[in-house]
Write a structure and sequence with these properties.
It is a single chain. With 483 residues, the chain is mostly helical. The protein has helices spanning 2-8, 21-29, 31-52, 57-83, 93-111, 118-150, 154-183, 199-221, 239-250, 253-283, 288-316, 318-341, 353-390, 395-424, 437-463, 469-482.
Length: 483
């Protein structure tokens, strides 16, 4: 069917079907690579270069943010080239296979810098971050573009994304648990092991191996689907015509609304991740065993999202569900900080503090991951919306845009987090309990206020998404009749 459509020049669309379980598991497992990269990059990178290597936080954040300038060109280029790739392995798999080794190499370089001058090390973090981001794009953009190609069913796409986010978060949480309990565990006499330089060596090798294996398992496990994937006709044309098509695709209103929601949410998430170790240690007084529980309870939240998000969206529609989950996530995450400032939340040392925080964070994780699952599912539906308008399938372009937002805002989050620390007057290499209360309060207010505002803005944009299930199914039927 796909070959007939390609040869005739008709629009090629995937079937409305339920994806078999083996393919679903393999496809979802590939997200472990991005989960490991994203959680470690966002949670530990600023801390590593600032607190362990003693580089100024604002300068480290700026160097990482500068790497984003190249992403503005790299991600859309990969998405566009992936859409136009011709090979016996289809459009996506050549990119997926080729990305595994560069990702592992870049990761090892990022966490094992040479003992150079401060300026040279800032260049190192910039260059190695560019290598990691580019290699991750070469896998993640084509891999995400597979999601709307596997099935055109409205609800099945939410299920596909639920598996992807489950494995992505599971990979990140597993690495987080391993980091706190093994690689960066405190040594005898230490309160925390986060500042142990040697621990980051094993941490880097474990992350590189996990990403390499996840990518190859996913590519091999979905390889058998290549013959069933859409193969739209790809006309040869000038570079100028290619750019005109790209510009036409990204002007899609539904796409732009999701991009705006993504900018708000992922910026908030990036700031939260980058400041998480500072907040846990200096605001809540977490110690070794407390950190180990974080990965477990966040993973429970993700499992909750995996089970709940598809069911809620089926009842209310994706835009309404995404808005509701996002509002709840923003309120839940910031509530303990506001209550602390009001003097009505348990203080560090109180036996109820950690269990109460972990319970709130579990529900928050369920809500925030549910909103991102639904946002990604809506992005898959944009493909047919655009195809009706332009006559082209642009899965790679749309998911490149979404992925660029994720990467851009994670780097922006690190930059903003570094700026927040500087504004708050937070000292370098600070030991828990040694930071003045006024400094901790400034950090709390800046973080919670910014996160709440960005979360509410994301919810606003999710609700503005312009279509639901009925419009999508009518559009798919129309495209199928044209084929």
């Amino acid at each position: 069917m796909a070959a007939e459509q390609a040869s005739s020049g008709a629009a090629a669309i995937p079937p409305v079907r339920r994806v078999r379980q083996g393919t679903m598991l393999a496809y979802g497992f590939g997200a472990v690579a991005y989960g490991v990269k994203d959680f470690c990059f966002s949670t530990f990178l600023l801390l590593f270069y600032n607190q362990v290597l003693k580089l100024p936080s604002a300068q480290v954040g700026f160097a990482i943010m500068c790497a984003l300038l190249l992403d503005a060109f790299i991600d859309p280029a990969i998405g566009f080239l992936s859409d136009r790739t011709r090979s016996r392995w289809g459009r996506r798999h050549p990119w997926m296979y080729a990305s595994a080794a560069p990702i592992a190499l870049g990761w090892l370089l990022l966490w094992n810098p040479p003992a150079w001058s401060q300026g040279a090390m800032l260049v190192w973090v910039f260059a190695s971050a560019v290598l990691v981001r580019t290699a991750v794009s070469a896998y993640e953009v084509p891999s995400q573009a597979l999601s709307p190609e596997l099935s055109a069913d409205y609800d099945e796409r939410t299920r596909i994304m639920a598996y992807r986010y489950l494995f992505g978060w599971a990979g990140g949480m597993a690495m987080l648990i391993a980091s706190y309990s093994y690689f960066l565990a405190p040594e005898p006499g230490q309160v925390t092991g986060l500042l142990n330089r040697q621990g980051y060596v094993g941490f880097a090798f474990a992350g590189a191996a996990a990403m390499f294996v996840a990518i190859l398992v996913s590519a091999l496990g979905t390889h058998r689907e290549i013959g069933r994937l859409p193969r739209p006709e790809i006309a040869r044309q000038s570079l100028g015509a290619n750019f005109r098509e790209l510009r036409e695709s990204v002007r899609n209103r539904a796409f732009l609304i999701l991009m705006a929601a993504g900018i708000c949410y992922y910026s908030a998430q990036g700031i939260s991740y980058a400041l998480s170790n500072y907040l846990y240690a200096h605001v809540w007084g977490f110690r070794g065993a407390d950190f180990q529980w974080l990965g477990v309870i966040l993973l429970l939240g993700v499992v909750g999202a995996f089970l709940i998000a598809p069911r809620v969206a089926k009842r209310t529609g994706k835009p309404v569900a995404a808005m509701g989950f996002m509002l709840a996530a923003a309120l839940l995450l910031t509530l303990p900080y506001w209550l602390r400032l009001a003097g009505v939340f348990p203080t560090p040392g109180n036996p109820i503090l950690v269990p109460l925080l972990l319970s709130i964070f579990t529900i928050n994780a369920t809500c925030s991951v549910s909103s991102t699952i639904l946002g990604a599912s809506m992005m898959a539906d944009v493909v047919e919306h655009s195809e009706v308008e332009t006559g082209r399938r642009s899965e790679g372009v749309f998911f490149a845009g979404a992925f660029f937002i994720q990467k851009c805002t994670s780097g922006l989050g690190i930059f903003v987090a570094g700026s927040i620390l500087a504004i708050a007057g937070f000292p370098e290499a600070a030991k828990p309990g040694s930071v003045p209360v006024a400094t901790v309060d400034r950090l709390t207010i800046l973080f919670a206020g910014l996160y709440l505002g960005l979360g509410f803005a994301a919810a606003f944009f999710y609700r503005r998404f312009p279509f639901g299930k009925d419009e999508h199914l009518a559009r798919v039927a129309r495209l199928a009749s044209q084929g």
